[in-house]
Amino acid sequence: MTHDAAGRSDAMPLPPTPDYDVWPVEVDIVRLDVTPHQLEVEWADGRKSRYHSVWLRENAADDSTVNPATRERILDLSRLGAWPTLEAAQLEANGAVTLDFAPEGRRLAFHPGWLRAHDYSHLEALPAVLPPRVHWLGSERDAPTTLDASGWMAQASDPQAEDPLLSQALDAVLREGLVRLRNLPVEPGSLDAIARRIGPPRPTNFGHLFDVRAKPDPDSNAYTSIALAPHVDLPTREYQPGVQMLHCLENDTVGGEAIMMDGFAVAETLRARHPEHFETLTRVRWCYANTARTSDHVWFAPMIGLDGEGELDEVRIADFLRGPLLAPFEDVEPAYAALMAVQRLLAEPQFALRFGYAPGDLVIFDNRRLLHARDAFDAGTGGSRWLQGCYLERDELRSRLRMLKRAERRGRLA
Ligand SMILES: [Fe+2]
């Protein structure tokens, strides 16, 4: 017999929810008040939540609303015959809410934990499922958030099960843009299985996994031993890969340290010091080009991308991947002035976090936020430096972390 947070038993199971998630009942409902268009719920902590009848009808969990096999919606609201309204509301002994809907004459049950978690009349109180972003300066820290992954890949991986190490790692990537795992296997190609613990890798013209090491006929500056300026990878694509993983297999060279910086901290510093340059870089579209011998990727986009709320969404900083600027004539000098302001910022020492790669190290970072760079390394002393890399999307990382949190909630209820 299981109990939820309020101590109810499964002798009176709560109604299903229109999803596969787990919704603990942390606060009980004490009173309902209903009008044709609205339900008001009063909770034991005094909060009063309001829900529209049309919203409730669309979010019911019964077989007329969602396909029970997929839990995807099958209801078409426009075919109900009239605007869905409420005729009666009942608070059940197990804490569920039962509502009678017109014009269908249908009685539908709602899970109190789900209602509380989707209380859109208190959007400010909705708990964030994913962690907030925290900007950082390299000068404030000695190393990336680092986790010991000894033995982790030897454990079975179950996408529905808890995995505290992966949960901590993905939390750090969403929060700080970067995490380092240590003591992973060093077999070439093992990155594929590591990445798939998060989600499917995104292949590119550099391969499904790519090898970062000096090679004789390079199709990227990354595949030489020269220093690399701070950059994101593949700004040359309409949609830059959201996540990059770099896995160190061998490193006994001199130099070649990793240098990472929070591109969003750089962008916010630019916004504070030079708002006019910031505005220019959110507006003028630069050319990003990777014109190799066998491919020709070109994309035009602003250097700083904002989301619909004006928050930072991505940076596209990579001097060696910019093609000729083809902007309106009057934008060209302001664009270059703004570019140089960014380049001066990138050279300021407070942003960079510098650390070495040991075999078995893996860094996972938000490729649309973090800038990575590298010192030159000496490829001619007999030493070797071999990283394997791959890309994923932010979507995969967010989905995986939501699944891990779901498993953690289920574990707390068991
Ligand atoms: Fe790179």
Briefly say what this structure is.
The protein has 414 residues and is α+β, with helices and mostly antiparallel strands. Helices cover 22% and strands 26% of the residues.
Description of the molecule:
The protein is α+β, with helices and mostly antiparallel strands and 414 residues long. The protein has 8 helices and 20 strands. The chain has helices at residues 53-58, 112-117, 164-176, 190-196, 263-273, 275-283, 329-346, 394-413; strands spanning 29-34, 38-43, 48-52, 85-91, 97-102, 106-110, 146-148, 178-182, 210-212, 228-231, 243-251, 258-262, 285-291, 296-302, 304-306, 312-315, 353-355, 362-366, 370-374, 385-392. The strands form 6 sheets. The protein has a 6-stranded mixed beta sheet. A hairpin with a 5-residue loop joins strand 15 and strand 16 (312-315). The model is unreliable at 1-7 (pLDDT under 50). Bound molecules: fe (ii) ion.
End-to-end Cα distance, whole Å, is 9 Å
| Overall strand count | 20
Instruction: Indicate the low-confidence ranges by residue numbers.
Output: 1-7
**Strand residue content:** 25-35%
Shape: elongated
C-alpha Rg (nearest Å): 26 Å
> What count of structural domains?
2
CATH class of the largest domain: Alpha Beta
How many helix segments?
8
- Strand order, largest beta sheet: 7-8-18-11-20-9
CATH superfamily of the largest domain: Clavaminate synthase-like
Query: Helical percent range?
Result: 10-25%
- Mean pLDDT value: 93
> What molecules are bound to this protein?
fe (ii) ion
The sequence of SSEs as H and E is EEEHEEEHEHEHEEEEHHEEEEHEEEEH
Annotated CATH architecture of the largest domain: 4-Layer Sandwich
Query: Within the CATH hierarchy, at the fold level, what is the topology of the largest domain?
Result: Double-stranded beta-helix
For the sheet with most strands, the description reads: 6 strands, mixed
By secondary-structure content and strand pairing, the structural class works out as alpha+beta
